[in-house]
Task: structure prediction
Amino acid sequence: MAVVLLSLTVLLPNPRMVFALDAVAVDEDLHSLDLDQAHRRLAYWLQSYRAGNQAAVDRAFQSFRCAGAALVAQTLLLTVALVVR
Result:
């Protein structure tokens, strides 16, 4: 049961994570800049979104590790139960 619950926390969508830029905001903010400045501004935006997502990614990775450990423990317990029978 723990494996299923922990796996669901990894697989379910997280609304706090950002994976795309708002095209209207990008157009309004970058239309007056030259190409190098626009690239630099986009790079900073993407870096800030990545940093904002990092906590959620770390939590998902921790859940994944716990699910893996729970699966190993469950497999070992099942093996012991079958051998003891």
